[in-house]
TrEMBL record:
Residues 7-26 have a biased composition (Basic and acidic residues). SUPFAM superfamilies: EscU C-terminal domain-like. This is Flagellar biosynthetic protein FlhB. It holds the Pfam family Bac_export_2. One of its GO terms (biological process) is protein secretion. It is a multi-pass membrane protein. Its main location: membrane.
Length: 381
């Protein structure tokens, strides 16, 4: 059961997969939204430019009806005149055509923004396979598209039929109406029909856009195995990362152990904790922790310190406070200055005794360690 669930596409697409699909030209598109946008643009364009276009067409029609006598007997002149007339018509309609072209290019970007991908232009010869083509023709997606097309045709056709039936008397009255009055009534009927169809297209686009978005993200869903594989590719194999972290810890431990022989003193618990301190007068503002560890690592620090004759001092409260409140490589807390100063004073006396002989110094018996820094102090548990 777990293998089957891992192979089911239940996980939403990751940002990486969304970006990859976008690079390949796979973005949600709504033809209905583009159709509606172009339709509205055409209606607004005709409403704003209708007067200008009508006057231009009237001029072109009047000039086109005036045929010089010479052109009537020379076919080449008629062709030249037809070419000039066609160019004039194109020039007259160019603002409207440019507006429509801009909207046709801009409308698809309303959902997914601007995108240009060469991969979408690459030839895909597998689409020439007739078996795959038949599979696409009888697929669930094709059935959904066919249902949508039939519903759209029925909806728009029904809106058109309703408009004509609702205004049948006005349409029939156009036959007997004078030209000027009939033209006005015809314009009103055209505007009403346009608004009805545009309203129908709004409903179709309002349904199609969410469906296209839902279908796009549904197709990009990932299986749990794909998510795990992508995380491995992005963040690395967890086992490999664990080995790298282990190697890094081992290298850090070796560097730390290399600093133990350079320490001035090792404060111990005596076996649970070991903290190695170093202080250089004039170079350090306060003593620093060059090594620390607990249990086996603490014993290893003691062993290396004994091998290199680093002084050991058993001071359990101070060792615990240094271990828990001083990070490796950092200065000791200011509240421990007095206690550590006594320890260093003892170390310097011991060093002098080793060099010049005499009476051996006694280790400090009582070191002032704030109770709140000692994790084993029962008053602060």
């Amino acid at each position: 059961m777990s293998e089957e669930s891992d192979l089911e596409k239940t996980e939403p697409a990751s940002p990486r997969k969304l970006e990859k699909s976008r690079d390949e030209g796979q973005i949600p598109r709504s033809p209905e939204l583009s159709t509606f946008a172009v339709l509205i643009t055409a209606g607004c364009g005709l409403w704003l430019m209708g007067g200008h276009l009508t006057s231009q067409l009237s001029i072109l029609m009047r000039d086109g009806m005036k045929v010089p006598r010479d052109a009537g007997f020379d076919s080449s002149l008629l062709l030249d005149r037809l070419f000039d007339q066609s160019f004039d018509i194109l020039f007259a309609f160019s603002p409207f055509l440019i507006l429509m072209l801009l909207m046709a290019v801009t409308a698809p970007m309303l959902i997914s923004g601007w995108l240009f991908s060469w991969k979408s232009l690459e030839p895909k010869f597998n689409r020439l396979n007739p078996i795959s083509g038949l599979g696409r023709m009888f697929s669930l997606n094709s059935l959904i598209e066919l249902t949508k097309a039939l519903l759209k045709a029925a909806l728009i056709g029904g809106a058109g039929v309703w408009t004509i039936w609702h205004n049948k008397e006005a349409v029939l009255s156009l036959i007997a109406a004078p030209l000027a009055v009939g033209a006005g009534h015809m314009g009103n009927l055209i505007v009403m029909s346009f608004l009805t169809i545009a309203g129908t297209m709004v409903l179709i686009a309002a349904v199609d856009v969410p469906f296209k978005l839902w279908d796009h993200y549904r197709k990009l869903k990932m299986t749990k195995e794909e998510v795990r594989q992508e995380n491995k590719e992005t963040d690395g194999d967890p086992q490999m990362k664990a080995r790298i972290r282990a190697q890094q810890r081992e290298m850090a431990r070796k560097r730390m152990m290399a600093e133990v022989p350079k320490a001035d003193v090792i404060v111990t618990n005596p076996t649970h904790y070991s903290v190695a301190l170093k202080y250089e007068d004039g170079k350090m503002r306060a003593p620093r922790v060059v090594a620390k560890g607990s249990h086996l690592l603490a014993l290893k620090i003691r062993e290396i310190g004994q091998q290199h004759h680093v002084p050991l001092l058993e001071a359990p409260p101070l060792a615990r406070a240094l271990y828990h409140h001083a990070e490796l490589g950092d200065e000791i807390p200011q509240t421990l200055y007095n206690a550590v100063a006594e320890v260093l004073a003892y170390v310097y006396q011991l060093r002098r005794h080793r060099e010049y002989g005499g009476k051996a110094p006694n280790p400090p018996d009582i070191l002032e360690v704030p109770a709140e820094l000692d994790p084993e102090n029962t008053a602060f548990k």
